Amino acid sequence: MQRLKTKIQDIILLEPRVFGDARGYFFETWRQNSYKELGIPDFVQDNLSRSTYGVLRGLHIQEPHSQGKLVTVLWGEVYDVAVDLRRDSPTFGNWEAVLLSSDNHRQLYVPPGFGHGFCVTSQDAVFAYKCTDYYHPEFEKTVQWNDPDLAIPWPVSNPVISAKDVKGISLLQFKNG
Asked: What's the pLDDT at 69?
């Protein structure tokens, strides 16, 4: 497993060792002791979503009960974004974006206190994530995916957004609580 450099120290981008041959490939998607050495905690919930091209989900966070997430693309490709929403952080409002795909096998650990979202850039994608806390819908908040203060260069010009995500709040509204 190789840890790749990110702009925000607490975000962990991983490139697992993939063992491939004419039959296909094999790699470990989770091994508690290896990931613990990298500072990634244990998980309590696994989630799976399937989306088609242009679907944009996010930017989601729970407050309280913030979730750390280890995200992996099992099929297809996504543009994955983590935004630092820790109000007392020197990198508040900064974000990291990476391409995750079933071809590159990379994983991204999004720590608690970060907003998370992704946009599907392939025909469809199957997205898996492990969470450090349970989903509490009553505490979920959405920061606007297209907030000009974030200026995230999403790769799709007319993304498909849920009604819930359309009602997201600005970064400034989030900061002011």
From this structure: 98
In the set 35, 79, 109, 129, the catalytic residue is 129
| pTM of the model as a whole | 0.96
Centroid of chain to Cα 166: 19
* CB of 143 closer than 8 Å to CB of 169: yes
For residues 22, 28, 34 and 35, what is the CA-based torsion angle, rounded to 10 degrees? 130
Judge whether 134 counts as a catalytic residue.
no
* Domain count across the chain: 1
Closest CA to 150 of 100, 83, 78: 83
SS3 content of the chain, % helix, strand, coil (to 5): 10, 45, 45
Residue 47's pLDDT band, with cuts at 50, 70 and 90, is very high
Amino acid in position 167: K
Domain that holds residue 91: 2-175
Active-site choice (60, 79, 109, 116)? 60
60 is catalytic: yes
